[in-house]
Tetraspanin
Amino acid sequence: MEGDCLSCMKYLMFLFNFFIFLGGACLLGLGIWVIVDPTGFREIVAANPLLFTGAYIVLAMGAMLFLLGFLGCCGAIRENKCLLLFFFMFILLIFLAELSAAILAFIFRENLTREFFTKELKKHYQRNNDTDVFSSTWNSVMITFACCGVNGPEDFETIPHLPYSSLEKTTPEACCQRELQSREGMFVNKEACLTGIERFQNRQGCYTVILNSFETYVYLAGALAIGVLAIELFAMIFAMCLFRGIQ
């Protein structure tokens, strides 16, 4: 390989690894934010083993990409064959793991349907029982997003009332409107809400509210994932070309 071509390949390799470094930093920041965020996501993640595992996978993948991007940059600039081979093998493993995760997410996407959440809510929800992780998580979601149930207050018609609740008819306390959407927020009119007066209740279902809230971010995350996979693929190609070109 000619010197100019090798030099061009080296700097292209450095550029791609710099983007991997930045992508890893973004994933690392996202993982940390989801785990420590105080606005309700931490409770949701902690209550669901799948989300809990996923958050730490994102954190680990971000840290690994961050490290590998750094190593790739060093290997390219220093023209070190050991670092380049090490980088290629690990980026290949990460690429295959991310591809497998994307395929599994596509296969099991039916577990995130409206019907699935409605069935789980009616089966496990225990209203204001904060000792139950499932109920506490749902209450946090409904308070944070100012929504009620999956489809609306009608989801709670078949769920038994707590024996000590004298006011609550159908709508749980978490569906009542608050001046500030947090557990510490004051109710607009708690008694009227619990006795069934609709104007003091959050009537919109959480499925629609959350879907609308995160729709933009879902597309952004998908585009970011595709971009990261493409960058990783090109980085592996450049790493192997540079490895073969170094004498």
About this structure: Residues 176 and 190 are 6 Å apart (CA to CA). The chain has a mean pLDDT of 77. The chain is about 65% helix and 0% strand. Residues 206-245 form the longest helix (40 residues).
